[in-house]
Amino acid sequence: MKQSVLTRYRAMAYVTGVLLILLTLGVIAKYALDVSGAAGFTTAVGIAHGWLYVIYLVFAFDLGTKAKWPMGKLAWVLLAGTIPTAVFFVERKVSREVSGLVETPEAVGA
User: How far apart (Å, rounded) are the C-alpha atoms in residues 104 and 102?
Assistant: First the structure.
């Protein structure tokens, strides 16, 4: 497996995780604290998270199929982008596991 597969998964995991935390804070501000302007913020961040989550799903599925994960593990990684902060823990665990499958530049050139 190429390093780029893991790198793009990791990048989208962080982006998705940060946007989900911002969305969660926006929803709390909108509904629990009744902050003015939170509705627009929540809408914008929600749309961004939704579209970028789809890209996260594609990259995570690509990584999972190349790493030959069982369906249960793949499902957990795919759903991690919907639980605030879960994606950070899952990304760290996945990166450790998959790093052994990544081709080194020396092995590719040989």
Answer: 6
- CA–centroid distance for 68 within its chain: 19
Residue listed under structure tokens 């190429």: 2
Question: DSSP of 1-68, one letter per residue?
Answer: --HHHHHHHHHHHHHHHHHHHHHHHHHIIIIIS--TTHHHHHHHHHHHHHHHHHHHHHHHHHHHHHTT
Q: Counting Cβ atoms within 10 Å, is residue 104 exposed (0-12), middle (13-18) or buried (19+)?
A: exposed
Buried b / exposed e across 83-101, counting CB within 10 Å, b at 16+?
Answer: eeebbbebbeebbeebeee
Residue 34: what pLDDT?
Answer: 85
What percentage of the chain carries pLDDT values higher than 90?
64
